[in-house]
Amino acid sequence: MEQRKIIFFDGECNLCNSFISYVINRDSNKSLYFCTLQSNLAKTLLNEYDSIILETNFSTIYYYSNNKLYSKSSAILHIFLELSILHKIIAKIALIIPKFIRDFIYTLISKNRYRLFGKKETCRLPTEDEKKQFI
């Protein structure tokens, strides 16, 4: 995989799309790239990691940075480390919480995300300004 910092997300999930919009608006360096889990590119890139199995419901967000692949709460918190000072502080504090507790909460939200936040019929389309960050 390239040296890009890539966020892999469910392009049909309203919660995921809202999170991506949130990150785009706060990524002042434009150093993050985005790829929907539904894309063939995501399947190809994530296939390099034997332990990662793309589920049919795409319930996990992945973040690739510095030759490491993070998932669930770790992905969210490592993405926060790329944003503002406040986000970095929040992430560093939250990373102290044991992963199994963080991921339990993540999984609860993930399992109910379509019911709580809805689902799109198609993946998110980037604006003209955002297109260079989508792969």
In short:
With 135 residues, the protein is an alpha+beta fold. Helix content is 42%, strand content 13%.
How would you describe this structure to a colleague?
The chain has one domain. The chain is globular and about 35 Å long. It starts with a strand and ends in an 18-residue tail after the last helix. The model has no long low-confidence stretch (mean pLDDT 81). The chain contains six helices and four strands; from the N terminus they run βαβαββαααα. By secondary structure, the protein is of the alpha+beta class. It has a four-stranded mixed beta sheet, covered by helices on one side. Helix content is 42%, strand content 13%.
The amount of helix comes to 40-55%
Question: If helices are DSSP runs of H or I spanning 4 or more residues, what is the number of helices?
Answer: 6
The H-and-E topology, N to C, reads as: EHEHEEHHHH
Extended strand count: 4
Outline type: globular
| Strands in their spatial order, largest beta sheet | 2-1-3-4
> What is the terminal-to-terminal distance?
12 Å
- Taking Cα atoms only, what radius of gyration do you get, to the nearest Å? 14 Å
* Poorly predicted runs of 5 or more residues: none
Number of domains: 1
Mean pLDDT: 81
Largest sheet: 4 strands, mixed
How much beta, percentage-wise?
5-15%
Helix and strand content put the structural class at alpha+beta
Key traits:
13% strand; 6 helices; 42% helix
